[in-house]
Design goal:
Number of helices: 2
Distance between the termini: 39 Å
Strand order of the largest sheet: 2-1-3-4
Largest sheet: 4 strands, antiparallel
Number of strands: 4
Structural class: alpha+beta
Order of helices and strands: HEEHEE
Shape: globular
């Protein structure tokens, strides 16, 4: 994986500022996994590209959030060394 996608991995000690919008689905009474709808992160010099590492970090982070089924949420903040920091809110 590193040989193929390694150039896309988030750079260590680089702070990417951005946002993502995600939805938490429901089917019947089942709470479905969160799904990212929109995502954009940049540092002053370049955009954070999608990669297997960022995708995994984003999905793990969305899973840990306290959300309601059927909700749409927007998160804004920073991503640095595979850690998200800031706040999020429900979209109206």
């Amino acid at each position: 994986m590193v040989d193929t996608w390694g150039h896309l991995a988030p750079k260590k000690n680089t702070t990417y500022r951005g946002h993502f919008v995600f939805a938490v689905g429901c089917f019947g009474s089942d709470h479905l996994n969160p799904t990212a709808i929109e995502c954009e992160f940049n540092d002053p010099e370049e955009e954070l590209e999608s990669s297997p590492w960022f995708y995994e970090a984003l999905n793990d982070f969305m899973q840990e959030m306290d959300t309601e089924a059927g909700g749409v949420y927007r998160w804004e903040g920073t991503f640095r060394n595979y850690t998200f920091r800031a706040s999020w809110s429900a979209c109206s």
